[in-house]
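Hi support team,

I've been running sequence recovery on a batch of backbones for a student project. Most finish fine, but this one hangs at about 90% for roughly twenty minutes before it completes. I'm not sure whether the input is malformed or the queue is just slow. I've pasted the structure tokens below so you can try to reproduce it. Let me know if you need the job ID as well.

Thanks,
M.K.
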């Protein structure tokens, strides 16, 4: 996009509910940067020109630019040429899947005639496009591609192509390749205490597809969905896209506060509860056994589904893995989600869902309608990967590597960031949530965003925790994945992050209340 042609659409509103013009300009320019429509080095229109085009006083535009300059989105001097700052754009952390959508202006210039679902998606889902990779990207829930046995994988794919003329010459089962479903059922029974037949296991295009299909089958517009607060934004967006009302329930050291859920009158109308019991996203806590039992008991008395997202429980470093909720469920209420994204590689797009028997039929029909089936070739290779013992070997190796990297991260944080690392020592998973000291008068959102941007300019990818909250976050924090980065990069990356934190603190932030991300 030519920055000179930047389209800014202003909304005026006689009731006084529209944001002031400088805020609207600020937000639209910022959104264009975060979505990669404006990239590093693009020159913005002169304040005089943009003001004339919009019929505003020049000061109004200058004020918006000044805010963007102060937050590091723009570089240059107001009045003598303003550019998008270097190393920003779609690759910045806010451009990622966790990034918060920009409120309010999302529908400006949107195509007419979208459904309610389409409009909500447009408004609430951040642009998922990826920019250039950052050298020190603490990306979340992603294993190290360099550690993946690529040659072996190629051999398994090649073998399947040569061997499976029958399977590859026609559509496969929408529920998935049966031997893969059998292998997953066996693996889950042994490692996670999941109690299910292979017929209850359905192969999906990653856990996100399972969330999407379940939501479409089970949630009517206006229905109540219970989510963890803070929680996984991608799940929340699948629910709100179909018009669900979210009921956020706080998470403490023992996971979802089930007593608080029981006390809420709104919870009695809930259709679905979404939880990450093994390794709560993003805090990293584990749901206690007492609460697991209480949650199942509560759900057993209602027509409600519990969706258990077990996305990275393979990475456990100390103690015994906690059994899945699904394995404890006597009422047939739990839907278990698992993924190969976190152990193999995310663009593989293979996950699985374990359904109560009565949901298998509708779910498989929905899968057929959505995309027919998950690609057969990958399912064939994956079946051999599991049944020939490669998966177990790979997992043991990845666990060892991730444990070393986690230790390196904790040591680097203790050295450079002065943080209380005992708060970070979650015994499971591939990321930590790093609390940041608050800055008086600055919202956690603004502080996290400013630090993430400053870090991105130093080549470091870190992820604000604020977008994980439905309400205003209590305190600022960053999410740092450690599994994909070699130890030396972790050390260097944390050093650079510490510099970014110091700079933001020294320079201060413009005072602004509330949620602006
Ligand atoms: C909470 C949670 N669930 C699921 C996933 C994996 O999603 P998918 O299987 O769609 O790649 C992730 C990965 O980021 C996650 O953090």
């Amino acid at each position: 996009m030519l920055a000179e042609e930047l389209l800014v659409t202003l909304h005026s509103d006689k009731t006084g509910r529209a944001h002031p013009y400088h805020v609207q300009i600020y937000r639209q320019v910022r959104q264009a940067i975060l979505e990669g429509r404006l990239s590093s080095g693009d020159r913005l229109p002169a304040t005089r020109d943009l003001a004339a085009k919009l019929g505003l006083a020049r000061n109004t535009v200058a004020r918006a630019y000044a805010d963007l300059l102060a937050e590091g989105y723009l570089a240059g001097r107001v009045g003598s040429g303003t550019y998008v700052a270097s190393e920003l754009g779609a690759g910045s952390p806010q451009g990622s899947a966790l990034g918060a959508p920009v409120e309010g202006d999302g529908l400006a210039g949107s195509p007419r005639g979208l459904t309610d679902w389409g409009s909500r998606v447009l408004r609430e889902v951040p642009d998922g496009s990826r920019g250039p990779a950052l050298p020190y990207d603490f990306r979340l829930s992603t294993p190290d591609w360099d550690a993946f046995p690529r040659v072996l994988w190629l051999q398994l794919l090649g073998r399947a192509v040569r061997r499976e003329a029958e399977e590859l010459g026609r559509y496969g089962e929408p529920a998935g390749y049966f031997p893969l479903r059998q292998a997953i059922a066996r693996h889950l029974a042994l490692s996670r205490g999941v109690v299910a037949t292979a017929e209850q296991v359905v192969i999906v295009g990653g856990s996100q597809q399972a969330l999407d299909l379940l939501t479409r089958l089970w949630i009517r517009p206006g229905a109540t969905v219970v989510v963890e607060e803070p929680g996984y934004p991608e799940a929340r967006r699948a629910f709100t896209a179909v018009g669900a009302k979210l009921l956020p329930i706080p998470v403490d050291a023992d996971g979802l506060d089930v007593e608080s859920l029981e006390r809420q009158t709104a919870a009695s109308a809930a259709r679905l509860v979404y939880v990450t019991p093994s390794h709560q996203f993003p805090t990293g806590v584990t749901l206690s056994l007492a609460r697991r039992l209480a949650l199942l008991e509560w759900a057993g008395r209602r027509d409600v589904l519990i969706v258990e997202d077990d996305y990275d429980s393979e990475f456990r470093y100390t103690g015994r893995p906690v059994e899945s909720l699904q394995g404890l469920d006597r009422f047939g209420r739990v839907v278990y989600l698992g993924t190969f994204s976190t152990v193999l590689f995310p663009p593989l797009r293979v996950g699985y869902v374990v359904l109560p028997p009565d949901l298998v039929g509708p779910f498989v029909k929905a899968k057929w309608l959505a995309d027919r089936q998950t690609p057969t070739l990958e399912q064939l290779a994956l079946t051999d990967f599991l049944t020939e013992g490669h998966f177990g070997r790979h997992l043991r190796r990845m666990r060892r590597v991730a444990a070393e990297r986690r230790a390196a991260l904790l040591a680097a944080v203790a050295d450079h960031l002065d943080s209380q690392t005992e708060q970070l020592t979650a015994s499971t998973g591939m990321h930590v949530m790093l609390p940041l000291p608050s800055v008086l008068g600055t919202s956690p959102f603004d502080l996290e965003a400013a630090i993430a941007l400053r870090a991105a300019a130093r080549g470091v990818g870190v992820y604000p925790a604020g977008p994980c909250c439905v309400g205003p976050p209590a305190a600022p924090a960053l999410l740092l994945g450690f599994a994909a980065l070699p130890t030396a990069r972790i050390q260097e990356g944390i050093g650079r992050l510490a510099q970014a934190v110091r700079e933001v603190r020294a320079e201060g932030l413009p005072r602004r209340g509330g949620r602006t991300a």
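--
Follow-up from support: It reproduced on our side and the slowdown came from queue contention, not your input. The pocket of pyridoxal-5'-phosphate is lined by residues 140-141, 206-208, 232, 276, 281, 309, 311, 339, 341, 346, 351 (CB under 6 Å). No action needed from you.
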